[in-house]
Amino acid sequence: DGGFETSPLIGKFCESQKPPLLVSHSNRLWVKFRSDSIATFRGFTAHWDGTLTGCGGTLTTSTGSFSSPNYPLPYHSNSECYWHIRATGGSRIILEFGDFHLESSTNCNYDYLAVYDGNSTAASPLAHLCGSTLPAPVNSSKEDLFIKLRTDSNINAGGFLASYTQYCQGIFIANQSQGILESPDFPNSYPHLAHCSWTIQTTMGNTINYTFAAFDLESTSSTCIFDYIKLYNGPNEQAPLIGTFCGNTPPPPGATTGTSLHVVFQSDFSISHTGFRMLWYQNGCGGDLFGPSGSFNSPGYPNRYPENRECIWYIQTALGSSIQITIHEFDVEYHPNCNYDLL
């Protein structure tokens, strides 16, 4: 009853007796068939129907709520449910609980609700919850939260009721080489009275390039006083203004002269359109590296690297693997404690 071999077992079946009707509690069911080397028979045929109401799912609205199956009555035994909350680009998620009653145990080994800072259980854990104490709010660091409910075969409690909200104000983005900013609810119409602000920060010596893949804001004024987006060539609204934009003509692609870009989006109380999608990426050295193997080098190699530069590479390979780095050539300024130039 779930997406993995470690999920709660519904049953094992063999011989010629047809198994009963089987129903999962979530939107995932893991099925395994195995035959040995002795004898074979006609086998089986099965039909699955995913139109029933269960638990779990993908949630993409700007606000919403979800609960344990059967809430406010006791939840099911031996169930596993997954919720994926996905915010628009550049937004963050806050998860709050209005009611919470799961079987209490040391280290929450029996029934538990786990919250992960990403789009799967492979992401960093943020909370591992059980008992009847109302949990504190949980905040994502990026656009995704993944929630897993796991129950055992014993005690059932009243379950939980949770709500979530996406927010886009005061977001600081660093330690990324590229990303996407979107108006709330994009590609649907943005809400009235929205106010979003993002600061994108890259490393020393690098700049930020940006371009708009979609752009549709209210345009009833040549001065953009109703719904608008503002771009600043720096970390805040005191930095030089690149421009104020509205209507359906996207801002021209551009780049910062320094290491940061500040973006403000605001809507008024009336007309709303589909909003915008802005793509940005770090211009300079560093970046995200994927695949089973590859190579990278200092900026300008084999010539001298520039002064006052900081390059960060994020290398990611397949799950379960490790990464070996071989340095073929190395010529960096010497200091006993590597206080000057360093890798």
UniProtKB/TrEMBL annotation:
<keyword id="KW-0677">Repeat</keyword>
<protein>
    <submittedName>
        <fullName>Cubilin-like</fullName>
    </submittedName>
</protein>
<feature type="domain" description="CUB">
    <location>
        <begin position="168"/>
        <end position="283"/>
    </location>
</feature>
<dbReference type="Pfam" id="PF00431">
    <property type="entry name" value="CUB"/>
</dbReference>
<feature type="domain" description="CUB">
    <location>
        <begin position="1"/>
        <end position="51"/>
    </location>
</feature>
<feature type="domain" description="CUB">
    <location>
        <begin position="285"/>
        <end position="343"/>
    </location>
</feature>
<dbReference type="InterPro" id="IPR000859">
    <property type="entry name" value="CUB_dom"/>
</dbReference>
<feature type="domain" description="CUB">
    <location>
        <begin position="55"/>
        <end position="167"/>
    </location>
</feature>
<keyword id="KW-1015">Disulfide bond</keyword>
<dbReference type="InterPro" id="IPR035914">
    <property type="entry name" value="Sperma_CUB_dom_sf"/>
</dbReference>
